[in-house]
Amino acid sequence: MKDYQLDGNREMVALGTMNVVGSMTSCYVATGSFSRSAVNYMAGCQTAVSNIVMSVVVFLTLQFLTPLFKYTPNAILAAIIISAVISLVDYQAAILIWKIDKFDFIACMGAFFGVVFISVEIGLLIAVSISFAKILLQVTRPRTAILGKIPRTTVYRNIEQYPEASKIPGVMIVRVDSAIYFSNSNYVKERILRWLTDEEAVKGDYHTRIQFLIVEMSPVTDIDTSGIQAFEELHRSLEKRSVQLVLANPGSAVTDKLYTSNFANIIGQDKIFLTVAEAVAYCSPKLDVNP
């Protein structure tokens, strides 16, 4: 509400310490209530000293004024809380979330309706479950793209994002935008082979058949054993099609694992390049042009 920059770890340590110490004296569980923070803010409080004053007032109220509140209807107490926290409802943020990411909006609405109609715990559980499902989907179905050359440059970009980018005859360039693990390695392999099949079917785009497959690996931050096995299977499948596998710009961690697993020797160390442009320069003179 005041654009404070808070350290979440320090907040958790503070709450944990309060509850540990409080448990020794039978204190009520301490939490960070948004509604109380909103009431505190709307009352015009400026510093953390207000919390000390509030705790003293609450203590005196519990000790001496509790009988006066005995017959106060819950509806009145609810109205006080609602009037304090209504300003926290930011519908503009919900609209922005809808425009940016529909999946995040579903998680937002799941949390909102879960809290309103069931309970806070269920609302949080719904939001966490939806967010976890989103993460799993992104991990198991990473983004991949076919790259083309931007005219008058040596830069290669996604042909869907840059329609002016042109494909290289006889060479298909693929980029994988994720680390390759056991959860997505088979998907990456099948996706590349499916693209290769589709590209070979549209021979009109090329002066010759696909003879080289370049995998741009700069976004691949890591690869595990399953990922390397998937590349080995991809290499064998490409050999049956008389297509050579070439790698471009693998990171240091990925490169170390490729050499440790002997995969670099399987495809040939001369087929691992620093950039896509260098890989294309290597492949172009070796193309067997069949008009």
UniProtKB/TrEMBL annotation:
One of the protein's GO biological processes: transmembrane transport
Family, per entry: Belongs to the SLC26A/SulP transporter (TC 2.A.53) family.
Keyword Signal appears in the UniProt entry: no
Domain STAS: 161-283
SUPFAM superfamilies membership: SpoIIaa-like (SSF52091)
Spans through the membrane: 12-31, 52-69, 75-98, 105-133
Protein name (database record): Sulfate transporter 1.2, variant 5
Pfam families, per database record: STAS (PF01740), Sulfate_transp (PF00916)
Species of provenance: Pisum sativum (Garden pea)
Signal sequence residues: none
GO cellular component, one term: membrane
Entry keyword set: Membrane, Transmembrane, Transmembrane helix, Transport
Major location category of this protein: membrane
Location in or out of the cell: Membrane
Domain of life of the source: Eukaryota
Topological relation to the membrane, as annotated: Multi-pass membrane protein
Gene3D superfamilies with a match to the protein in the record: STAS domain (3.30.750.24)
